[in-house]
Protein: Dirigent protein
Amino acid sequence: MEPNKGLVSALFLFFLLHETIASPTPKPHIKPRPPPHRPCRHLTFYFHDIIFNGKNSKNATAAIVGSPPWGNRTILAGQSHFGNLVVFDDPITLDNNLHSAPVGRAQGFYIYDRKDIFTAWLGFSFVFNSTQHRGSINFAGADPLMNKTRDISVIGGTGDFFMTRGVATLETDAFEGEVYFRLRVDIKLYECW
Amino acid sequence: MEPNKGLVSALFLFFLLHETIASPTPKPHIKPRPPPHRPCRHLTFYFHDIIFNGKNSKNATAAIVGSPPWGNRTILAGQSHFGNLVVFDDPITLDNNLHSAPVGRAQGFYIYDRKDIFTAWLGFSFVFNSTQHRGSINFAGADPLMNKTRDISVIGGTGDFFMTRGVATLETDAFEGEVYFRLRVDIKLYECW
Amino acid sequence: MEPNKGLVSALFLFFLLHETIASPTPKPHIKPRPPPHRPCRHLTFYFHDIIFNGKNSKNATAAIVGSPPWGNRTILAGQSHFGNLVVFDDPITLDNNLHSAPVGRAQGFYIYDRKDIFTAWLGFSFVFNSTQHRGSINFAGADPLMNKTRDISVIGGTGDFFMTRGVATLETDAFEGEVYFRLRVDIKLYECW
Structure:
């Protein structure tokens, strides 16, 4: 982001000064800031979460590892799963097909954090190690998961995503009971180094 | 932060060049950097945490969901609660009154992480959805909670707080035994988009 | 980082304009961006993690506080410890000697998040309170810990590390069974305020 801003202001000043030099009465006219923000990079992925339920150990990509006093670690707790901490290592795909070749792994955790409605707090990374992408994107934020879309923060990155920041829009693309869900993640990076 | 810096440097250059053009012997004079940092945005809130203790399920806004081998999930563990992971969904208010109308929710977790003194690691969000604020602010950092004030990082934001960064100063405003505490959060944002 | 960029672009423009004024046919020539990124600050530390195993409560600096349904909190679980959540308060030293005087504490958590190989997700802080450093550095990211080196994000800082961002390279410097490990952390900060 920085270099572009540098160029824009350099060009802007360049023309401002030309005008200034040509005109006898210079009017310092500050151009209004251009409208909102365009991502410097835009990526879309899907990831697939299969929670261990005591019977699916072969396929499960996630497990409950913390629960409230009234819960256990095999069945998501009542009261909107409040207090369940889930660890995951989910395949990332380019389309919405669980069986497509994964392009990376989504790894981290979510904690259900509200009693009266489904919301969670997320901390996780997308980890890539392919010819297309190498490196990681780190995410954190609140996921009010009953909303059609919700925004979390891209808080950093490494490798191909060195020092990046941005916003990721999550959308529940599908779910099956309490075992499987699929998220569509629309990553808009606004700081690209 | 960025646009202001752009304008400032544009104006600075504008005048520098005017001077340069007028004077026969240009003196490239670089203005010293202005003193420290002023937040581009400054907000103060309170939030209220009521930990479930087995008897207060109606009022509780938080629950212990992880504990060390020597602990359980109804009573905070000995040794400064080391190892207790607490999930919370706490009301945010503008003043220090628990019963004031909440303006948002503080959602996330803290983990007590030291045996000989009370310290915790925090990952949480302020989630707003009112006419005044819409969006979220994401926080992370160490909370040495016996200190009068302690600083954590604002690592990102969405909506009205798009891409923000800053520092939040926490202060324990009140506590009652091991069930209730109230934090005052002074949020100073230094990157505002 | 910002101020330097400001100065650089100011000087660049200053000379660009001088040239422009002197020459009859101005050629707006944008200098290419200088090669990669040099840290504005570079620090190296070690930290030492001793996991509680039921017998070492005196020395232990970490404890298992969450585990998958098939595990417990005294022994790291099978399947690459998938699902174990560990809280730590580890001494930071300047060299690789566990018994050197600590210069700070590494505090936070890691969660083993993969079944077929050792990987973890980290959220933690370096907390300093000495004459040399005062303040904190906050980290988050994926740690594929079988790799010789792996990068995580510096997502913020306070005090001497106010608003910093960067990348930290982790390297397992030593480990002893499942009880002790030592990480070398090479912190490269690219945003320094």
